[in-house]
Amino acid sequence: MNIRLVATIVVLLGVVCGPAGAAGPSGCDLGGTQIRSMPDPVSGRSYDVEITLPSDYQVNPGKRFAVLYYADGGHLAASATCLSKEPRRQEALRLVKRLHREGKLADEPILVGLSYAKGEGFAASRARDYTPVADKPGYGGAGAFQAYLAKTVIPAIESSYRTAPRRRLFWGHSYGGLLGARILLTQPGLFQSYILGSPSFWFADHAILAMEAGYARTNHDLKANVLIYVGGDEIRRYDPDRRGDTRDMVADVRTFETQLKSRGFPGLTIRSLVVPGKNHRSTIPPGFSWAITSVLGNQTVQPR
């Protein structure tokens, strides 16, 4: 996965900007987005977590809010000082704000961005933390990152802010979508809804499909709402830049969805969207709009 692609993902996945009222507990407040350091007590690694509150959080003190946790939140410039960190969140933020303004989102959620380990390059950090198996050195740490999320991040957020625990969402794109699928198949109750964007199901010879089969052998239900989007151009084709074929991520999404549906899990809702004419980067705005509106919306939004 090239660095330019990852940089594009983290720009588009930066949904936590804009007016958010007063900051919560102590941390670094960047114009509405608070940056809190949350070390992992098990691994010893330290991560920043980015929190942005809905625009009506302060004016509705009795209200509890859905929370959207999203991968690839750690796209701030590395520095020891808070003020030198520049948030890059405008694209997806505009989608959330626009959908809410147009009445397609019933509520704005609290937004929680999950960062990369401090002192590491983002490519190395996300490769370890977002992949489910160690098919090569430096990969396969998703289980440890999931435990950190479940035991450290989520309890800290829910003890500090007015959250609605039954309205907890996860959003990940590419490797982040693969992480979401791993959580879904190992600890499904951690989130009620999973938004998986162009997920890297191809990783380690489609290891996620074997994980799904293993889950199905020992479980009779999977209580979750799953929405998967992928660009229509994410098919197998020759890429001159790579001097080889691209992966067929559309086929992978269809295989994963079909395999899950075949289990007949009564508590599972799963839908997918192939966005025509979009690639791994450009599918994010229409794909995310469809998914977040499906979960928190007043009506179904169609991709543009």
UniProtKB/TrEMBL annotation:
Signal peptide residue numbers: 1-22
Pfam families: Esterase (PF00756)
InterPro entries: AB_hydrolase_fold (IPR029058), Esterase-like (IPR000801), Siderophore_Hydrolase_D (IPR052558)
Keywords: Hydrolase, Signal
GO molecular function terms listed in the Swiss-Prot or TrEMBL record: hydrolase activity, acting on ester bonds
Parts forming coiled coils: none
PANTHER family: SIDEROPHORE TRIACETYLFUSARININE C ESTERASE, SIDEROPHORE-DEGRADING ESTERASE (EUROFUNG)
Similarity comment: Belongs to the esterase D family.
The protein, known as: Esterase
Organism: Labrys okinawensis
